Amino acid sequence: MQGSTKIIFNTGITYARAVVTALISLYSTRVVLSSLGASDFGIFNVIGGVVAMLAFLNAAMTTSTQRYLSFNLGKGDLSLVKKIFANSVVIHLVIGLIIVLFIEGIASYLIGNKLQIDSSRIEVARYILHFTVASTFITVISVPYDAVVNAHENMIFLAIVTIIEAILKLLVALSLFIVPGDKLFYFGLLTMFSAILIRLIKRTYSKRKYEECRITIMQWYDLREIKELTSFASWQLFGTLCSLGRNQGVAIVLNFFYSTVVNAAYGIANQINAQLMFFSQTMMSAMRPQIMKSEGSNDRDRVIRLSLSANRLSFYLFTFFALPLYFQMPFVLDLWLKEVPQYTVEFCRAILLLTMANQINMGLMTAVQAIGKIKLYQTVAGGIQLLTLPIGFWFLKIGYPSYSIVLVSFVLECISTVFRVFYFRYLTGYPAWKYFLGVILRSVLTLLPAAIFLIIIGEKLPEGITGFLVCIISSILIYVGSLVLYGLDRSEKRIFKEITRKLFKIII
What is the pLDDT of residue 145? Predict the structure, then answer.
């Protein structure tokens, strides 16, 4: 299967998966919130919220190993692929132990001394911490197997496993109606068991399917290879931890000033955001191996071309769903949840803006990873992200509303984008002005007609399902028109048509 055809096929598969899992996950969140209540749901998000972020941690660490696997698969060197896999197993075992010690130490201190948790819930909060740590460890040591599946672009297996994972989460949520005792305790315990089961399935499949996974670690152990992999993985992990630190740190900072009900609002906003990001992330999971294999085969022009397309497509796919949701957020939340915590609408809208700014860089980040020079990139971009915490803390301290900390993060993300563009120019020679005009300005102008239309008619729309449908339909028609006329180049239009055709065929 040719590269472009494979991208189209894999994207179609991953989108079908995204639709199914998004529907299941959104309903699961409704059930969990209804069963636990806003306060306990907030406790889980502030302490066990790392579980919700494990997908990002796993994806980022998988990218580190996948970069070397895909790079050498592009070269056709199976022996080096085996060596990379074996040594990555050793590395991730060590990383997993370090993360466990770090989370246990820091979180235990915060639970006992800083976080505003009712004294009657302190004990169960500590249990949630331990369940989270166990899930984190299993996730980290399974990363090499995830990387192998991704490097081989086996999107059908990934789709099946992801759907199974979503169904398990739904079953866990429904079980809360029948379990005796403390529901929050059982929710954390069953969530941990679900994570362990999914990781075991992936590990078993990889060992049976791929030759590089059926090896003796000591046979391929190479200290020099470990040092190279560790250097790349460490900087990749640093960047990921900065992102996780920002996201989870916001929850902790909010808890310094507000009750866990505000944490529940922030957690719900992250749930919605994660489901919307899934559409662009699945597209990137199809394009990422191709970008990395192109670098491995010394085709830098194709790396640049694919990364620029990935930037625009990631932005379009996210905003296609996020735009009407932004304007109809109160209606959607009322329809979805029985009880909407205060400030949930504002948090949801602020996080959508933050993610829009991030999506415009997705292909660029993958290109930097493929080239391999990530030390400066992760240091500066990650440092800018972490500035959210002190600056956001100051804004909350002087009296700004709770959701202002997310808007601070949005501004910092825009600043980080400028750095990323110029670093991309440094690595590839691609002119920065072409990036600003061809990717950022073009993407924003494509979004603008639909956004302006919804702003104008927003207050005139009737409340309820009628206004919601009018908003959705008008947004889709105007946005698709903008994409066809201006947003996509010729090759992207072909990919868009093929993806649409495959999705329509799957749905029918």
Answer: 84
Instruction: Identify the DSSP state of 213.
Output: G
- Environment class of 238 (CB within 10 Å of its CB; exposed 0-12, middle 13-18, buried 19+): middle
* pLDDT on residue 420: 92
Q: What is the pLDDT of residue 8?
A: 57
Classify 153 in phi/psi space as left (phi over 0), alpha (psi -120 to 50) or beta: left
- Answer yes or no: are the C-beta atoms of 446 and 483 closer than 8 Å: yes
CB 55 within 8 A of CB 184: no
Token pair belonging to 368: 């930097």
Dihedral (C-alpha) 261, 265, 267, 268: value to the nearest 10 degrees? 130
pLDDT at residue number 69: 78
Residue 462 DSSP label: P
What the block records as the tokens of 454 is 């919804």
Q: Which positions ≥6 away from 490 have C-beta within 8 Å?
A: none
* Token pair recorded at residue 403: 């959701």
Q: In this predicted structure, what is the pLDDT of residue 199? A: 82
Containing H/E element for 72? helix 49-75
The shares of helix, strand and coil residues in the chain, as percent rounded to the nearest 5, are 85, 0, 15
Q: Name the stretches of the chain with pLDDT < 50.
A: 1-3, 51-52
* Residue 406 near residue 331 (C-beta atoms within 8 A): no
Q: Can you give the pLDDT at residue 496? A: 65
Report pLDDT digits (tens) over 463-495.
778 888 888 888 888 988 888 888 777 777 776
In this predicted model, what pLDDT tens digit does every residue of 232-257 receive, in sequence order?
A: 777 877 887 787 778 778 888 887 77
CA atoms of 170 and 163, how far apart (whole Å)? 11
Specify whether the CB–CB gap between 409 and 391 falls below 8 A: no
Cα first-last separation, the chain: 25
Predicted structure pTM score: 0.70
Return the amino acid letter for 151.
Answer: A
CA nearest 91: which of 101, 79, 102, 99? Answer: 99
Q: What is the per-residue DSSP string for 339-380?
A: S--TTHHHHHHHHHHHHHHHHTTHHHHHHHHHHT--HHHHHH
CB 409 within 8 A of CB 390: no
pLDDT at 6: 58
In angstroms, rounded to a whole number, what is the distance separating the alpha carbons of residues 351 and 418?
Answer: 20
Q: What is the DSSP letter of 489?
A: -
Between vectors from CA 495 to CA 493 and to CA 497, what angle results, nearest 5°? 70
Distance between CA atoms of residues 66 and 7, nearest Å: 17
